[in-house]
Amino acid sequence: MPGERVTLNPPGAVAKDEPAPIGGDGGSGRGLVVRRPQRILTGSELFAKKYRTEVAASASSCVSTFIAFPLDSIKTRMQAYKFRSFWDCVTQTQKTEGTRGFWRGSLAPLASVTLVRTVSFSIYSKSKVTLSGILQPVFGKNAISPPNTPYKPLNPLYWFVSGAVAGGAITVIACPFEFTKLSSQIELLMARSRMVGVDDPSHITRYQPKGTFQSAKSIVQNRGIWGLYSGFHLHFIRDTLGTAMYFSFYESGKQLFASSSGAGPLAIATSGGLCGLLSWVLVYPIDSAKSIYQRDVLTHRPGEALPKRPFRFFNRRMYRGLGVSMARTCIVNSVFWSTYELIKRKVDSIT
């Protein structure tokens, strides 16, 4: 028709209805609707939008884990063996293993943390939906607040239980990877301890490390597939409690530090650092007990009785390496949450 401007959309395009301009061309076209063509989303873009949480969690995990892995390596060494100080551990590692020693065993956690984070965040999101369906009929629709809305009384319970479910579930996946990582990180220390005191800085061994896959293969050969789950009971307790507190602290901090326009980059980085810091401090003795137990497993033959070590929550030994661990977890989680929220925003902006 004269004066009617209609644009046809290509197949598969996302179109938007808009009112046509009134007047012009002799006054025709009043009230007509034109369809403005928009860009067709690619397969990868559609995938990213559908699995936004999983994509953001996996990418952010790779970045944050690689950056902070040397601190995790030092933390594990200090938990499992005695060093004079943090710098003593750093200098001995540099002398005996070189710079690559700080990233020894990093392949397993890069894979495991990426997988664990992705599964954990997916389970956490689904658990919140399920839990809200249970709590709201009992306590009312206003008992739980959605993101970026005022705080409600049941929010802490909502976050804590959802986080505990996610933490308990991911232990099944994480335990084999973490046990293999620990084996790779301390294998040189175990070899040195058989020949000379580990705190002797003059001893430099030519021991050839096995590496991640060889360590896992050796564990399976010597102890069977279930050997990868050594220390599972302590790992389960640590991850269930730790993940529950982790999400609770982050969600609370995000609401606490948010402005009227929502949580900005500083609020997200601060909340991320604090949630990792606070939750890790509280479960750190359990993590130390797990590292010591798994070290005992590795240093004893299969079937040999392990030494009985009473768990003392406030024992100074259980907090060995806490300082470096606090620095590591603060950096990891600040980087992780900042990257995670940034990626989610980028995915949301795809149109």
Structure description:
This protein is mainly α and 351 residues long. The protein has 2 domains: 1-40, no CATH class; 43-348, Alpha/alpha barrel (Mitochondrial carrier fold), CATH 1.50.40. Helices cover 63% and strands 2% of the residues. The protein contains 9 helices and 2 strands; from the N terminus they run ββααααααααα. The chain has helices at 43-50, 52-80, 86-97, 107-139, 155-193, 212-223, 232-257, 265-298, 322-348; strands at 16-19, 33-36. It has a two-stranded antiparallel ribbon. The longest helix has 39 residues, at 155-193. The protein is globular and about 65 Å long. 38% of the residues are buried. Residues 1-20 and 195-207 have low confidence and may be disordered.
SSE inventory with pairings:
Blueprint: E1 16-19, E2 33-36, H1 43-50, H2 52-80, H3 86-97, H4 107-139, H5 155-193, H6 212-223, H7 232-257, H8 265-298, H9 322-348
Antiparallel strand pairs: 1-2
Helix pairs in contact: 2-4, 2-5, 2-9, 4-5, 5-6, 5-7, 5-8, 7-8, 8-9
Brief rundown of the structure:
The chain is mainly alpha-helical and 351 residues long. Helices cover 63% and strands 2% of the residues.
- How would you write the strand order of the largest sheet? 1-2
Low-confidence stretches: 1-20, 195-207
Radius of gyration: 26 Å
The overall number of domains is 2
The counted number of beta strands is 2
SS-based class: mainly alpha
Instruction: Tell me the overall shape.
Output: globular
CATH topology of the largest domain: Mitochondrial carrier fold
CATH structural architecture of the largest domain: Alpha/alpha barrel
* Major sheet size, sense and barrel closure: 2 strands, antiparallel
Tell me the span between the first and last alpha carbons: 31 Å
Q: What is the overall pLDDT average?
A: 78
Strand percentage lies at under 5%
- Count of alpha and pi helical runs: 9
Spell out the CATH superfamily of the largest domain: Mitochondrial carrier domain
Q: Which series of helices and strands comes N to C?
A: EEHHHHHHHHH
Quaternary state of the chains: single chain
Helical percentage? 55-70%
GO molecular function: transmembrane transporter activity
Main location: mitochondrion
Region (Disordered): 1-31
Pfam family, one: Mito_carr
